[in-house]
Design goal:
two-stranded antiparallel sheet, globular, ten-stranded mixed beta sheet, 264 residues, alpha/beta, single chain, Rossmann fold
Length: 264
């Protein structure tokens, strides 16, 4: 578990002396497929986020939104509290599980963060993080959430975090437009989104023929958040046909590999 120490009034991850022996220069090489990159998928309810995530190889689900997984036959650890999440991470760290499963889906990370909030309120004796002065409550929430997110990253799975979407009206000097963002609370977003490799936004789109299709995109606009650091899925928008809804990974991975080869 990651630990933190106080530095100039803030918190920093603690580094043990034993880690020094591993320091050195290594040549990093990009993954040859999407398996190995961490993804964040968000979109409207029932758009197909969980189905899309389950198309990744050998999945297991850390289900915080328990009812959302009822329609699927998949290995699942159900969590209804932060204590459940902590125990689930312990279970997932066992070598038997890391050998058996390749993809770990957190569905939804919104609820996981709410469990963390409830835990921190009880542990530190406040009703809301804002009750503690100088941002102390928010810092404790952020530190606790980050510590467990880092534990998840260290397990070795391909991680997929699922969130819903919300719309807000944004007013600028010249116009008002609708902005779509993940429903993950602000503290959770600030911790998690900088760490993931790809942010996928899923939406419904009407074609010229009037047919409604589901698309998945990494193209960021002022209307919604998306992104890609792999450099091989940047600014894409792919249709996921209804008849191939269980093949989303294959569709995305094929595009990733093609763009990877084209860039050589």
């Amino acid at each position: 578990m990651a630990k933190f120490r106080k530095v100039n009034g803030g918190s920093r991850p603690e580094v043990s002396d034993s880690s020094v022996e591993y320091a050195g220069i290594e040549i990093n090489t990009p993954e040859n497929s999407l398996l190995g990159y961490t993804a964040f998928i968000y979109g409207a309810p029932k758009i197909g986020k969980t189905t899309t995530a389950l198309s990744w190889p050998k999945p297991i689900v850390l289900a915080c939104e328990v009812r959302g997984i009822k329609a699927f036959t998949v290995p699942t650890i159900k969590c209804r509290s932060w204590q459940h999440v902590l125990k689930a991470i312990d279970t997932l760290s066992s070598p038997s599980n890391t050998r058996k499963y390749s993809t770990l889906i957190i569905d939804t990370v919104d609820l996981m963060h709410k469990y963390c909030l409830s835990y921190c309120c009880e542990k530190y004796g406040f009703d809301h993080p804002s009750d503690q002065g100088w941002g102390k409550g928010w810092e404790r929430l952020s530190d606790e959430f980050l510590a467990q997110i880092l534990r998840l990253f260290d397990l070795g799975y391909t991680l997929i975090f699922i969130s819903h979407a919300k719309t807000t009206e944004v007013t600028s000097d010249f116009e008002t437009y609708t902005r779509i963002d993940p429903t993950l609370a602000g503290t959770g977003r600030r911790v998690l989104l900088p760490l993931v490799d790809v942010i996928f936004y899923m939406k419904a789109k009407e074609t010229r023929s009037g047919k409604v299709v589901r698309t998945i995109t990494t193209k960021a606009t002022r209307e919604y958040e998306a992104g890609d650091r792999t450099q091989h899925l940047t600014d894409i928008e792919l249709v996921i046909p209804a008849e191939r809804k269980n093949s989303a990974y294959a569709i995305l991975n094929a595009r990733y590999k093609k763009n990877s080869e084209d860039s050589k």
